Amino acid sequence: MKKSQDFKTLCVHAGELKDEKYGGAISPLYMSSSYAFNDVEINHYPRYFNTPNQIGVAKKIAAIEGAEAGLLFGSGMAAISTALLSHLKSGDHVIFQDDLYGGTRNFIQNEFSKYGIEFCFTSGTEVDDFESELKQNTKGIYIETPSNPTLKIIDIKSISDLAKKSGIWTMIDNTFASPVNQNPISMGIDIVIHSATKYLGGHSDICAGAVLGTKNSIKQIFSSAKNLGGSLSDYTVWLLERSIKTLFIRVQAQNTNAKLIADFLEKESWVEKVYYPGLKNHPKHNTAKMQMKGFGGMLSFDLISEMDCKKFLLGLKLIKPTMSLAGIESTALSPRLTSHALLTEKERISQGISPQMVRFSAGIESVEDLKKDLLQSSKIQI
Ligand SMILES: *Cc1c(COP(=O)(O)O)cnc(C)c1O
Q1: Is 116 left (phi over 0), alpha (psi -120 to 50) or beta?
Q2: Does the annotation mark 205 as catalytic?
Q3: Ligand 1 proximity of 334 Cβ (cutoff 6 Å)
Q4: Helices 52-65 and 234-245, interaxial angle, to 10°?
């Protein structure tokens, strides 16, 4: 798709397939898992990541991230595990940010040693914390900003500069920001990963992943991907295309709601602390302002010690106390009881996850209704 087109236009039109036969307005869906034999190199087959719908939507996401190429996966974790394994071999070392999506951390801790891959988690989120972990065999740096669930911000440009200086690659999990709010390739990051289950999908009804990068890095990832087999069904690909058409307006609405909810919670006496990069008192507000176009739809807050977190969540009537995030409906959860339950208490405390923490994913409902719901649940206890 032409670079000259605006983000909103790319969301709607990039990568669309033409209905040559009937002239329909949307991409036809090709469900075939068997195609005419062309050539061993270019045979179309779902697990070769090259069916018409896969190619179209990979192009769409690459266009909105400003990447040369992309691949779609059956889940965010399939995207993450394949991207990492394709770039690592026995004896290599990788530096990971300390606060990572729980599934990513489990993957590293449970699988890497089986392949002889060395790794470390940084002690903080400053560039110095990454630099001090560099070793002779370090091959790459992997980050996630804003982080889950404490909304820590890492200076993306400083990390990509450090990596370039050291001759190593960088990967970022850009799920929380979405391509609407942050485009890390423009800041020098090599590979961008999304759990498309979240904002790209946006309706809490599909599981998918995506990896974006240069043509060469995507080629390298593909050569492992076809062996690991984590491709996405074409029906889900087609639903994902439909979702991305409205990505811009959904995320804009979620950004607005999250900021208004953060402002509201900051003034409430039953809230101890609010974590949102869009707040002036966020320790990295200025960095967020520099590298993000919007501050995102995710925020967290700590309830005061007199309140019971579980009771608060169960008292909500409109906001759903469910897992996952980024849907058009607002949801809330306790990281300690759900998304980060597999960490030890010590690991949680070191990441700043208190038992009083609530993680909130802003939907697109009326913000007044959301505030009313939060308030009524707080009153059950105080
Ligand atoms: C959900 C999530 C993932 C994993 O994605 P799945 O689609 O569930 O496999 C990875 N990173 C982040 C930040 C996520 O929120």
Answers
A1: left
A2: no
A3: no
A4: 30
Task: Kindly give the distance from the C-alpha atom of residue 201 to the centroid of ligand 1, in angstroms, as a whole number.
Answer: 12
Starting at the edge strand found earlier in the chain, the sheet holding 69-73 runs: 69-73, 209-213, 191-195, 169-173, 138-144, 93-96, 118-121
- For residue 311, which amino acid is it? K
Instruction: Name, in order, each residue with C-beta under 8 angstroms of 226's C-beta and a sequence gap of 6 or more.
Output: 47, 48, 49
* CA 23–ligand 1 middle distance (angstroms): 36
Q: Is 98 a catalytic residue?
A: no
- Give the domain 7-244 fold: Aspartate Aminotransferase; domain 2 (3.40.640)
Question: In the chain, what are the domain boundaries?
Answer: 7-244, 248-381
Mean pLDDT for all residues in the chain: 95
For residue 96, the cross-strand partners are 121, 142
In short, whether 70's Cβ falls inside 6 Å of ligand 1 is no
Mean pLDDT of the region 345-367: 93
Whether residue 102 has its Cβ less than 6 Å from ligand 1: no
Fill in the amino acid letter for 64.
Answer: I
Is 21 considered catalytic here? no
What CATH homologous superfamily does 248-381 map to?
Aspartate Aminotransferase, domain 1 (3.90.1150.10)
CA 194 to chain CA mean position, Å? 5
CA distance 270 to 105: 32
* Torsion sign over Cα 231, 233, 234, 239: negative
Mutate to test the pocket of ligand 1, among 97, 101, 152 (most ligand atoms within 8 A of CB): 101
For 13-42, how does the pLDDT look when each residue is reduced to its tens digit (9 = 90+)?
999 999 999 999 999 999 999 998 877 667
Active site residue 250: no
User: Is the beta carbon of 76 within 6 A of some atom in ligand 1?
Assistant: yes
**Six token digits for residue 266:** 């900051």
Which pTM value belongs to this model?
A: 0.96
Measured from the Cβ of residue 68, the count of other Cβ atoms closer than 10 Å reads 14
Contacts of 280 (CB under 8 A, 6+ apart): none
pLDDT at site 2: 46
